[in-house]
């Protein structure tokens, strides 16, 4: 059903389901972004390297967008319980628009990060390691992390984040349409 065909009771159910989905997806994306940052990117970022700065920017924006998505989910859940307050409807409209736009920009940033990583074959990810043989790096103290799987792990987590960002965009737009319907705009 499209939002235009819903009665107030259905609005509550759709808002509740959408809010729960946004909460879950937002938390998963937050955890994914935190894992990427904590396991790899905190060692990689150097102020003079444009690629590593792009990595940290895209990843930080992804974590911030996840927080916006979580806030949008909370607003949708609150609105599902209390449909009357106009301020809550406007808050949902604002949060869902910001969340959707933020997730879209993060999606594009992550695509660029993945493209850069594939293009330079992970050299920016392995730059902090001073060892020449990556197979011996886990037993070496010359690398701040285990580089044997950093390339595939980072790309895998970014792929998961891309899927989660897409879901956040879809359900954020759904909240936006519901808020517009409730505000009769």
From TrEMBL:
UniProt-annotated location(s): Membrane
GO cellular component: membrane
InterPro entries: Beta-casein-like (IPR020977)
Nucleotide-binding is among the record's keywords: no
Family statement drawn from the similarity comment of this UniProt entry: Belongs to the TMEM54 family.
Name this protein carries in UniProt: TMM54 protein
Gene: Tmem54
Membrane topology reported for the UniProt record: Multi-pass membrane protein
Alphabetically ordered keywords of this record: Membrane, Transmembrane, Transmembrane helix
Lineage summary: Eukaryota, Metazoa, Chordata, Craniata, Vertebrata
Listed transmembrane segments: 20-44, 56-79, 91-116, 155-180
Annotated coiled-coil segments of the chain: none
Keyword hit for Disulfide bond: no
Main subcellular location of this protein, as a coarse class: membrane
């Amino acid at each position: 059903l499209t939002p235009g065909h819903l009665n107030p009771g259905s609005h509550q159910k759709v808002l509740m389901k959408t809010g729960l989905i946004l909460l879950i997806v937002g938390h998963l994306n937050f955890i994914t972004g935190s894992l990427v940052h904590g396991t790899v990117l905190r060692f990689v970022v150097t102020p003079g390297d444009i690629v590593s700065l792009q990595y940290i920017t895209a990843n930080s924006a992804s974590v911030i967008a996840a927080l916006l998505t979580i806030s949008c989910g909370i607003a949708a859940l609150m609105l599902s319980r209390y449909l009357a307050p106009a301020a809550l409807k406007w808050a949902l409209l604002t949060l869902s628009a910001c969340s959707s736009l933020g997730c879209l920009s993060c999606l594009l940033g992550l695509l660029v990060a993945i493209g850069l990583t594939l293009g330079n074959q992970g050299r920016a990810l392995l730059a902090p390691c001073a060892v020449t043989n990556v197979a011996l790096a886990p037993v070496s103290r010359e690398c701040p992390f285990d580089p044997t799987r950093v390339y595939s792990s980072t790309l895998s987590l970014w792929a998961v984040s891309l899927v989660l960002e897409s879901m956040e965009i879809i359900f954020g737009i759904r909240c936006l349409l519901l808020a517009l319907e409730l505000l009769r705009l």
